[in-house]
């Protein structure tokens, strides 16, 4: 029996991994191991490991990273603690493959410890670019430590190969988030309103904003500009989701709490909606405003618009439903006016999601199950220039 160890550190990441975990769990030839870390174990971020257990998954190890500080020093110390915890967990569990998704610092710690432990790594959602965040460097670093790669688009597959990975180990499977949309039984409007204790209005926006981690101390100013723009809106209700454990994340959280306290007639803040409520809300809102990847990866499937503010997601593939704007009040207001324009609303009806139509889960599980792991650790650098020269000659 092949043991597959999946690692999750955030609510959003767990939502993307959910169906893959289910597929592995029900396969008689596979054993699921689950390591939970990061925000899942933090009271500040909702102790979301409880939802994982409620969903029927056994957590083999909890890797504490002590996210008590969002300063650069604090996060670096958390990464060090994470590496220690993951090293000990791998030694105890001895998985055949470690599965990692994305680009967060918790996942970097997990990848580094797995590499040293000589455990093959399967990396999901590599090859993407987020030029405004240090996630960019972390993601590509994890790619170089990994042995199997599952990308969300063909352009991202080519980029992983450009980083020197063998094309035979790089698979374009599409976005995992679309499987959630296709497979989950989403809530009705009434069920959603009861669940969050909040009534939707004539117009509704979801606000999901994170700090731009490659910029110094811009979170407060940028988010205040967004709040000032939202104050100009009429008959519009707002659902705020709180940010991740990134540098300056607590600045945004405090500003959200203060804003909602002053505007509780039209705004609500939620630490963690969870995948079901988040996707259910997308059915009934007019758009996502902020700089979350969900506005690019999942929102187009619902035929709703996304106002993408600033540089955090710069470089990602975007559907025609995405409106880019600068992190200042006037640019944000211009984008909101465009979102509600008749012309843009008509265009949304024909939007296609560049991250596919679903099916990633089954493709990934099949490859994890069937790949020969003998000598997989010894990689050769796939040199595109050498290949091109051979073809030309």
Detailed description of the structure:
It contains 16 helices and 13 strands. It has 393 residues and is an alpha/beta fold. The chain folds into two domains: 206 residues, Rossmann fold; 162 residues, 3-Layer(aba) Sandwich (Rossmann fold). Strands 3-2-1-4-5-6-7 form a seven-stranded parallel beta sheet, sandwiched between helices. A six-stranded parallel beta sheet has the order 10-9-8-11-12-13. The chain starts with a strand and ends with a helix. The mean pLDDT is 93.
Q: Cα distance, first to last residue?
A: 46 Å
CATH architecture of the largest domain: 3-Layer(aba) Sandwich
The CATH class of the largest domain, by name, is Alpha Beta
Which parts are unreliable, with pLDDT below 50 for 5 consecutive residues or more? none
Helical content, roughly? 40-55%
> What is the CATH T-level topology of the largest domain?
Rossmann fold
The overall strand count is 13
Structural class: alpha/beta
CATH superfamily of the largest domain: Glycogen Phosphorylase B
- Mean pLDDT comes to 93
The gist of it:
It is built from 16 helices and 13 strands. It has helices spanning 11-26, 49-54, 72-93, 105-116, 135-145, 154-162, 176-183, 189-196, 219-230, 249-262, 274-282, 294-297, 329-339, 342-348, 360-370, 384-392, and strands at 2-8, 30-37, 61-63, 97-101, 121-124, 148-151, 170-172, 203-208, 236-241, 267-270, 287-290, 305-309, 322-325.
Throw out a few tags for this protein.
2 domains; 7-stranded parallel β-sheet; 6-stranded parallel β-sheet; alpha/beta; Rossmann fold; single chain; 43% helix; globular; 393 residues; 16 helices
């Amino acid at each position: 029996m092949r043991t597959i160890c999946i690692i999750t550190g955030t609510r959003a990441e767990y939502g993307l991994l959910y169906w893959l975990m289910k597929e592995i769990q029900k396969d008689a030839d596979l054993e699921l191991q689950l390591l939970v870390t990061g925000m899942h174990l933090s009271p500040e971020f909702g102790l979301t490991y409880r939802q994982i257990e409620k969903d029927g998954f056994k957590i083999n190890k909890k890797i504490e990273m002590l996210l008590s500080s969002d300063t650069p020093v604090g996060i670096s110390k958390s990464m060090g603690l994470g590496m220690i915890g993951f090293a000990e967990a791998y030694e105890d569990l001895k998985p055949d493959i470690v599965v990692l998704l994305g680009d967060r610092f918790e996942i970097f710690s997990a990848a580094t410890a797995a590499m040293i432990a000589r455990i093959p790594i399967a990396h999901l959602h590599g090859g993407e670019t987020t030029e405004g965040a240090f996630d960019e460097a972390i993601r590509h670093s994890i790619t170089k430590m990994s042995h199997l790669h599952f990308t969300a688009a063909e352009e991202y597959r080519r980029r992983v190969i450009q980083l020197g990975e063998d094309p035979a180990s790089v698979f374009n499977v599409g976005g995992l988030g679309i499987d959630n949309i296709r497979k989950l039984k989403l809530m009705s409007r009434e069920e959603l309103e009861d669940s969050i204790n909040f009534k939707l209005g004539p117009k509704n926006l979801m606000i999901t904003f994170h700090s731009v981690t490659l910029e110094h101390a811009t979170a407060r100013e940028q988010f205040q500009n967004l709040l000032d723009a939202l104050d100009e809106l009429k008959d519009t209700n707002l659902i705020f989701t709180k940010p991740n454990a990134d540098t300056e994340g607590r600045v945004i959280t405090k500003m959200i709490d203060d804003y909602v306290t002053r505007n509780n007639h039209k705004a609500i803040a939620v630490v963690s909606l969870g995948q079901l409520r988040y996707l259910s809300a997308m059915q009934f809102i007019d758009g996502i405003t902020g700089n979350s990847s969900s506005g690019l990866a999942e929102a187009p499937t619902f035929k709703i618009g996304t106002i993408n503010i600033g540089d955090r997601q710069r470089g990602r593939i975007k559907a025609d439903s995405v409106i880019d704007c600068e992190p200042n009040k006037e640019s944000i207001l211009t984008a909101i006016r465009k979102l509600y324009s008749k012309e843009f609303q008509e265009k949304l009806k024909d939007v296609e999601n560049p991250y596919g139509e679903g099916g990633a889960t089954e493709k990934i599980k099949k490859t994890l199950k069937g790949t020969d792991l003998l000598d997989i650790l010894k990689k050769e650098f796939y040199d595109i220039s050498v290949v091109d020269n051979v073809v030309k000659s």
